[in-house]
Each structure stands twice: as C-alpha cells, then as structure tokens.
Amino acid sequence: MEETIPNWLTKRAHLTPDRIALKFKGEEYSFQCVYDQSLKIARQLKGLHLKEGDFVGVLLKNHADTVFILFGLQLLGVKTILLNNRLTADELVYQLKDSKAKCLIYEQSFDFVVKNINKQILADLMTISKEALFGLEEQEVNAKEEFCLENVCTVMYTSGTTGRPKGVLQTYGNHWWSAIGSMLNLGLREGDCWLLSVPFFHISGFSILIRGVIYGITVVLHESFDEKAANDAIIHDRVTIMSVVSTMLVKMVDHLKDQSYPAYFRCMLLGGGPAPRTLLETCAKKQIPVFQTYGMTETASQIVTLAPEYSLSKLGSAGKPLFLAQLKIKTVTGNEAAPYETGEIVVKGPNVTKGYLNKMNETKEKIQAGWLYTGDIGYLDHEGFLFVLDRRSDLIISGGENIYPAEIESVLLGHAKVDDAGVIGVDDVKWGQIPVGFVVLKSNANVNENDLLEYCQKKLAKYKVPKKIIFLQQLPRNASRKLLRRKLRDYYR
Amino acid sequence: MEETIPNWLTKRAHLTPDRIALKFKGEEYSFQCVYDQSLKIARQLKGLHLKEGDFVGVLLKNHADTVFILFGLQLLGVKTILLNNRLTADELVYQLKDSKAKCLIYEQSFDFVVKNINKQILADLMTISKEALFGLEEQEVNAKEEFCLENVCTVMYTSGTTGRPKGVLQTYGNHWWSAIGSMLNLGLREGDCWLLSVPFFHISGFSILIRGVIYGITVVLHESFDEKAANDAIIHDRVTIMSVVSTMLVKMVDHLKDQSYPAYFRCMLLGGGPAPRTLLETCAKKQIPVFQTYGMTETASQIVTLAPEYSLSKLGSAGKPLFLAQLKIKTVTGNEAAPYETGEIVVKGPNVTKGYLNKMNETKEKIQAGWLYTGDIGYLDHEGFLFVLDRRSDLIISGGENIYPAEIESVLLGHAKVDDAGVIGVDDVKWGQIPVGFVVLKSNANVNENDLLEYCQKKLAKYKVPKKIIFLQQLPRNASRKLLRRKLRDYYR
User: AMP-dependent synthetase/ligase domain: which residues (chains A, B) (predicted)?
Assistant: First the structure.
C-alpha cells in the first residue's frame, strides 16, 4: 500500500478543471479557479516564513476565501487548527498555546476577540487578518504534489468528559478514507452537489469540502444555516445532498410546509446525535430521503450510516459501520455485548484519529489496539444495525454544537464563591438540548444567578453558557465523589 | 494509513445481505448467498490441507461456481493463479511449476489437458476437479476477517515482448485501489449493474468481480461473449456498465442495427488497445456512452480513463490518469516528453503491481522507483490527455519511420467489406521492416488485395500502406478478444 496520494486539489484541477467546484453568494468557481486561488494564497503565506509541519490557527467564517486559505495551507504542508468562531479570547489562547501555533489567520470582523488574546502568553504567535494576508506579495513556493497519508492535515479541539479541550489529530489519510467510505455507502453521481451550511470548523463542514474535491462535485457554500436559503438551494440550485443536524432539519421541514423536494435531491445526511422519531416519521411522510449517521471529530465525520434500502425499515438506527470501519459494543465488564445488550460503542477504521495532540495519556486511554472507545452508549440489533442511545452519557448537543458539562463545571468551580457545580443538558424545543447548571455556594456567599451567568459569559462561548442556574445544598455524588448527573436530571424533572 | 481492510465479501454480506450480487444463467444470488457458498467451499478446501499463503492454480470457466471458488480461496488467505483456459498442457506446466502451486482446481471438461500435465515435473501438485471438490466434507475454518493490503491476492501470467510468461503479482491493495480509482471516475449509482462477459482469468474480468463486491452492485455473468446476449442483457436486464474491447463492440453495434440502448445504460468501458476512430464515431452517432480506457495486468485493470465530459471532445484519447495514478511519457533519451511528443508510457499508483513472481531482474527492469515502464507508446496532448499509439512490441519501424499497426488496422476495418483486420511488421532488406495486413472479409464480400491496397493508399501515407494483404478465415485472438500479433508473425513465417 502506498503511503502517498496525489495532492487532491492539484489532481482534481488537472482531471476536471472546468467543473464547478464551489458556489458561494451567486459566484461560481471551477476546480481550476479554486486551485489557482489557493496557490496564490500559498505564495502569499510563504512571506510569513511558515515551514512544512508548522501549526497555523484559522479563525474564519464560511466563505469562498476560507476555502482558498484552507487549500493554500495544504499546498504548503502546514497543519491547520480550525478554531470555533464562537470561542472567547481565553479559549482561543488555550488552543493556540496547546498546539504551539506559529500563526493565527483571522477575519477582520474577529478583531475584537483577537485583540484580547494574551500576547504575553503567546509571545511567538504571529497574527494576521485574511485581509492583510491577501495584500502580501506572492513568493515562489514548492507546492506539495503529494500528501503522505500519515501526516496531520487538521486539528479540531473537543472537550472530553473531564478537563480541558483536546486537539484531535486528523491526518490526510483520515479525511481520504472518510470520503471513500462515505462514497461506497452513498454512491457518487454525475451532477452531485453538496450543500455546506454547517461550519468549516466542525468535521461535518470540513469533510464536505474534502469530499467535493475528491469526488469532483460542486459544493454550495452558505455563510450560515438558514432554512429558507437551504430549501431554496435544494429546490432551485440542484443540490442533491445536504448535511444537517436535527434542529436544522426541523426548521427546514417547518418552512417547507406543503412543498416537497425535487426527485434529484437524494440524501439528507442527518448527524449530530439521535434524532427524534417524530422528525424521522414526518420526513418519511414527506418523502425526504433521510440517512441517519453517527460520527465524531475523532472519526473524521461519518463512521456508521444507514444504507438506502433500510432508511425506513430501520427508522431510528444509525445503520451499519461503513465499508472500511469495524464496530463493537463493549459491556461494563469489557466483554462484547450480545444483540440488544447496551454498552459502550467502540470503533476501528482508517478514518479514526491516531490520537490527541501532545496528550499521550488521553490517547492511550481512548485508543486501545486501534479501537477508539467513544464513550457513547448504544446497542446492535440482531442484524447488526446500530442504535445510539446516548452520547457520552453527559454530552449536551445544542443546535448541533457539542457542549461538555465538565468544561462548564470547571468554569463555575473557578468562581471564588462556588463550592461545587454540576451541569446537565435538558430538552429544548428550539435547540434540542440546553445546558443547565447546579451550584452549591460556599457558606455565607452572596452571589445570585445573574452574577454567575455574567461570569460564565466572560469565560465561555455563548452557546456554552447555562440557560439557568439552580442552587442546591449539596450535589448528588457517589462514594468516589463522582457526580451523578443522572440524579440531577431526575431532580430537574 | 491502515494496512488492513475488512474482508470485502464478509463486509459486503454484512452491509447489504439481500442485494443481488450475481446473475448467471437465469439464477440470482444475493451477497449473503455468495458469502455462504464461498464459505462452504472454503470449508471443503480445508480438507486439502492448504495453508495461508499457498499458491493454488484455477483452470475454470466463467460460471457462478467459479465466483464461489475464487472468494472461497480468499477466505482461506490462499493466493490464486488464474490460468488461461486456452493454455496447452505444456504452458500450464510452466505456470504451475514457476509459481510452485500446491494445487490445481479445474473443471471436468478440462480433463483432457490436465491428464497431459507432466506429473513427474510437478510431483507435489495436487489436482482436483471442482466437481470432486464440491463432494468433499466441510471442515472447520478460521475465515479471514481482514485482508492485509500488501498481501498477494492473485497472480496472472503475461507474456512480455520476449521470453517466457511472467506471473504478475496482484495484491489485495492493487485490486482495492483499482476499484476505488474506477469509482471516482465513473461514479457509483444505486442500481448499477456490470456485465461480465470477458474471462475471469484476465484482469478485465476479475476486476469486475471485485468491484461488484466493494461497490455492492450486481454482476451479470456470461459464460462467454455473444453480441446478441450482451445486447439483450443491456436492453432487458438493466445492465448499466459493460467492459469490452473493440472487436466485441463492433459486433454489438452491428447486431444492434437501428435499435439503441436504454438511457440507464451509462458506460461502455472500452479497453484492450487503441480503438478505430470509425467505431468511436459510430458509437457517438448511436449515443452509446463509450469510455476509452487504458490498463494492463500490471495495473490491476484501468489506470487511465476518459472522464464523461470529454468522451466526445477527446474522441480517441484514453483520458487522464485516475485519481490516485500518475503518468509520464519518457522519450528514448529518458527525458520527460513535451506535449505531443511520443515516448514510452510510464505509470505509478497504488494499483500498480509490486512485481513479477520470482523474477527479481525483470521486476527491477520494469519498475523503477515505483514507476512502471509499460513498454507502450503514446503521447499527452497540451491538456494532459493520453493518446495510446501502440504496444511497443508491435511497433513497426520502416525506413526510419514509426508505423503503428493499430492505425492501419483501423483503416482496414473502416472498409465496408472487412470484418476483422490485423497488421504486423515483417523483416525487409531494404526498409528494415514493412507492414503486412491480414484481413477477414465479411461473408460474400468480393474484394481482392488490390482493391484493399488502393483503399489504403487513399487513407494512409505511402510508407504505412501494407506491402501485402493476406486473407484469413479468422484472426488469432485471445479469450478477451485481444489480437495476438505474435501468432500472425508465426503464421507469416
């Protein structure tokens, strides 16, 4: 097996230069054009003296420019840290420091947050707005003609059940195999066109970009999700595939009213956690071809997807592991579960991350003998279809964003007047779930809910800030002091 | 990059057990059924005490049983030597001895040739008819759950320009990447169905079998090529893709008369050497979607194929190297050729063989730094499209001018009374070599040598016009209908 593949963008531009690669705000860009623009930016980036293998953070919105910058970085062999646009300055500092990033490329509109980045902590960090980057002179570059599949392409941070966010290493091989595995399941048609309205800084968004180039299909890029714009793109712009999470799909179905999608629309790829049965049934009635899928940052997007012929008969299942993937359910005793027996979902495949950046221990704990212990709970039916019951027991998924209770708890615990803190997700009609905090104050402390919420707003991206704080005398913990979030959920009900 | 993938048949049977894998003589076999049958044969083969890594020769016809035997051998991790059904006993002995085969599985109908195999030379060789194999008791096996991509799956012997046949090593990775590369070019649709009417013992046939399992599509298997049966399969049996060589396509088009193919028929994959321009033009008129392709045993099928949008504008080109493949033209001085400059076609990619079985020197000579020197002649146009002129061994050099037999053949085939044509170079005192034509006339055609020479003179530069035309009842072609110019040379002598 070869360890290198041709640079996917260079190869694609050579194979089908004139096909439309990207549509954004009414503009169309051919693969040749995307390549030319990306090479131009690689030449401009060269002036920043980046070396192959350096880490570069990008704080960029969904925009054609971002596509060119991301591919430009690949042409230089630079590793890209995709920063969530909603992070606070403190959160950004943590990720940039943890990854030892040489440079941060950002949009001018994020000036306010970049200004607050602590320059003392990040003495070596170069910061440059994309607008300034585009003004740099072009220099000679040795553009990468091949990618080594073992090399890191991107890093995306996720928080675990405990502690600080960890940088998930995504290699060129991870992205490549993910695209191939998806294609073997969903097929590939001439004229396919994928709507990208989720953020680039999530694997769901970035993976569409890579698939587009590998498949040679058009990506329709939206700045952000809007149900009317999404429905318009499907109905009027010949979009054939779209990636969504439940909250997006609910809005689209509502907006659609009595209309239906054209026959060429062939796949609504639904990820981001278990979908409400009512939504799936509504879609079945409206003949919207929903493909439930299960994946995560660590698997470079989908690892389990429901094959077309089972989309109705196995409603609610995430499907079977993709062609190159393997999956087991492990019970608490470490044995392989019997059909219908619940346990931890454990996966293996060439799309699975090699580990976390500079986190040897966490990597060893989560990845054993090539198997990733996802922390998610589910079971297999008698035919081997996966049903995901719960994400990491405590993971909160709010409007498609992953929120880790431990991260919010650690912020609350950092407050001088807080003695103990717990966070759970509670159901919400609009967002799917929202975080709610439980706090035990130190004796004689006089803070109220608003004080704590204001405090959180300074430390946490807005979507992570609890929507409510409930004060308790004591939190339910087991003998080894582990927080029993299940009991908090019972209490909340 | 992982070095293993799941066993493709096991995985496919798990993913889509009920889809139709195979149609043969009116019978349909699901993927589950193919798996069950193959496992049964693996259990029966176990009684022959084959070890993983052993070589086993198969002398089998296109038949459902052959599919089960081939996959059964893979379940055991045994390496399969696919023996050409037309070989003489002497030729079989050579290949079985060269590969140190432990066992030969053959059809009872080949009894006569197997009886003539020299048992003294092959003292250790076990021979068993498939009919006897199917009577063996089943034994417990440890079926292979994963394939190591580096491991050899199959061996096919090819004759080079000189000397004895060489065993081309085809790894699981070669077959896997070949299937993926083809899919990235041709796409993959629900309902795709590939007609297999070329022999399994040629890579063109075997590769369809592997693609079928990886893609999860139906393979319609014919015992041998017949233009009426092939047209029927396309028109009545929902075949969407078919692999052909020129002579097959000529017959199909003739038989088709004024009929046309249904819209779902989307790809006539045309390999096996340069195609006559008249044939391509006829197909264009009839709206038959011809995809010219270039490949060989050493590249596990296609390595260059014409993308859909260029099938007409680049008529006659074999296309561009597939997504994972690279290609160069090397001039006689060893430099990379300029556009339109003729030279040797040199290719690289994960579908390219690691070498020839037990032939270190030949391997080193043909494969240098990962690049395979094909011995074939061609050029790239200014956009990087490959035009294959001829196989190097067939090149005729006359008075310092290069003459490509295929070019003359295509002219002869353009004559209304000519059914088949072949051209070779024969030694000549004055010119070094001169071209000689061999022609099969259509029944009741009344043309003579002079008529044909006059026709050629109108179409070809003088030095390319055959110095002689010899009329035959039939041209020597191998089982995949490839012209055997070597035999014409023998005949001429």
Answer: 10-357
Residues A187, B184: C-beta atoms closer than 8 Å: no
Task: Name every chain B residue with its beta carbon within 8 A of the beta carbon of A16.
Answer: 307, 309
Write out chain B residues lying below 8 Å of A324, CB-based.
2, 5-6
Helix, coil or strand: residue B407? helix
Pairwise CB contact (< 8 Å): A189 & B189: yes
Across the interface, whether the CB atoms of A6 and B350 are under 8 A apart is answered no
Mean pLDDT for chain A overall: 91
CB contact under 8 A, B3 and A1: yes
Composition of chain A by helix, strand, coil, percent to 5: 35, 30, 40
**Average pLDDT in the B275-299 region?**
88
**Which residues in chain A touch residue B6, judged by CB atoms under 8 angstroms apart?**
323-324, 326
Tell if the CB–CB gap between B323 and A15 is shorter than 8 Å.
yes
How many whole angstroms from its chain centre is CA B326? 20
Residue type for A336, please? E
B82 SS3 class: strand
The percent of chain B in helix, strand and coil, each rounded to the nearest 5, is: 35, 30, 40
Q: Do A188 and B190 touch (CB under 8 A)?
A: no
Measure Cα distances from A352 to A215, A233, A257, B418 in Å: 21, 32, 39, 59
Dihedral (Cα; A122, A126, A127, A132), 10-degree rounding: 170
Q: Using CA atoms, how far apart are residues B166 and B161, in angstroms rounded to an integer?
A: 11
- In order of their start, the domains of chain A are 4-148 (3.40.50.12780), 174-390 (3.40.50.12780), 397-492 (3.30.300.30)
> Given a cut of 80, is residue B1 above it in pLDDT?
no
Q: Tens of pLDDT along B125-179?
A: 999 999 999 999 999 999 999 999 999 999 999 864 445 689 999 999 999 999 9
pLDDT in tens, A142-155: 999 999 999 999 99
pLDDT digits (tens, 9 = 90+) for A423-435: 999 988 888 889 9
CB contact under 8 A, B324 and A6: yes
Q: Which residue has the higher pLDDT, B180 or B460?
A: B180
Of B241, B209, B201, B204, the closest CA to residue B34 belongs to: B209
- pLDDT band (50, 70, 90) for residue A160: low
| Residue-wise pLDDT tens digits, B55-103 | 999 999 999 999 999 999 999 999 999 998 888 788 899 999 999 999 9
The strand pairing partners of A220, in sequence order, are: A23, A195
Q: Which two tokens mark B313?
A: 């504008």
Q: Which residue of A has its CA nearest to B354?
A: A1
Out of B3, B14, B184, the one facing A384 most closely (by C-beta) is: B14
Look up residue B195 and give its two tokens.
């007609």
Interface touch A1/B149, C-beta < 8 Å: yes
Q: Which residues pair with B369 in a beta bridge?
A: none
Q: Which of A370, A332, A413 is nearest to B2 (CA)?
A: A370
Interface of B with A (CB under 8 A): 1-3, 5-6, 8, 11-12, 14-16, 18-19, 149-150, 173, 177, 180, 183-184, 187-190, 214-216, 307-309, 320, 323-324, 326, 349-350, 370, 384
- Rounded distance, CA A399 to CA B129, Å? 64
